[in-house]
Amino acid sequence: MAEHGLVAQRVHGYARHASALVGRMTAGRRMSPSFLVVGGQRCGTTALYKKLVQHPAVLGAGLHKGVHYFDTDFSRSFQWYLGHFPMKSAARRIEHRIGVPAITGEASPYYMFHPAAGERIARTLPGVKLICILRDPVERAYSAYAHEKARGYESETFEDAIALESKRLRGEEDRIRSDPSYVSTYHQHNAYLARGRYIEQLLRLERLVGRDRLLVLDFDEVFGDVKGSMRTLSDFLELPVWTPEDIPKRNARPRDAMPAGLRASLRSYFRDYDQELARWWGKTPSWRDGDQRPLGRASH
Prior knowledge:
Layout: H1 3-26, E1 35-39, H2 45-52, E2 58-60, H3 78-82, H4 88-98, E3 103-107, H5 117-124, E4 129-134, H6 137-151, H7 158-169, H8 172-178, H9 185-189, H10 198-209, E5 214-218, H11 219-224, H12 226-236, H13 260-281
Parallel strand pairs: 1-3, 1-4, 2-3, 4-5
């Protein structure tokens, strides 16, 4: 891993250690999350969360937007998890000031893809609402590749990394499910295609929490119609409507253009998954709007 990545990891570790100490002492006085932004990775979750916590009635998690309790830190205590959230006294002050109850939440984009996170969430936070944002899976895969390569988690070319993916991921989901302390580097950082098979992840979450507690947003629509997206979010979270300024895209990394042949191949790869997604979602994903062959009538 690159040197800057190691430094960031150490700082992150120190902060988490401090949160664990604080959490054990103050967990009973802290808010429990009402919502989780669960993914997908490289789909605008950071920008969406940062805008959402600007809502007057929303308090963010403390040191980091993503606590990662339900994926990579589930071996820790629930008190450690609560230690990341604001005090209930802060929520009471906000309610007194604006007249509506305050809520809190976090954004960990690995939750949606992690094979055990959904079940852990459903069991631990039975009333929590989940927010997903989806992006063209081809663009998402290439963005994730650039991100992981820059962070030192990838050394192959994009084409070779895709070819290696099934081998890298073989058996990893079973290991994750069988051992709550097991963290799979390949599963978390190198699942470029698997993370873009959104329908598989959404069906799993639907089975666990129900459709009414699951909001799915389209990346292009969120960044193309910020006010409309925030109205949708406000309704879902039962908050007063709030209309912010545009959402700046975050975590963008410069990268070379994807070869046209590879792009076409990946677009073909995802077509059937996107078609199933459209039927479940009740709408055609924005990245398929221009298809010459329609995905077919979307239905629930």
